[in-house]
């Protein structure tokens, strides 16, 4: 059985990048939440929904960008 080291490396790289992107998104969300709480401290449900949507959007964009970069950089054809 032959081990495909390039495939294993790319999966490990993608996983590591997604974890780092999650930490970056968390830091960005903390800053956004502080700004939203200062603007309108009474509407916590609205902030919670915005928090979840922004988190999903940031992680989606970061993951999509990282996958595209890895595929483009290593010239992988699907």
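Sequence proposed for the structure above (78 residues):
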């Amino acid at each position: 059985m032959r081990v495909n080291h390039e495939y294993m490396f790319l999966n490990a790289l993608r996983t590591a990048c997604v974890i780092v992107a999650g930490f970056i998104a968390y830091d960005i969300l903390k800053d956004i939440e502080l700004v939203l709480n200062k603007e309108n401290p009474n509407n916590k449900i609205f902030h919670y929904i915005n928090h979840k949507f922004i988190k999903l959007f940031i992680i989606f964009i970061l993951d999509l960008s990282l996958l595209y970069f890895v595929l483009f950089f290593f010239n992988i054809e699907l």
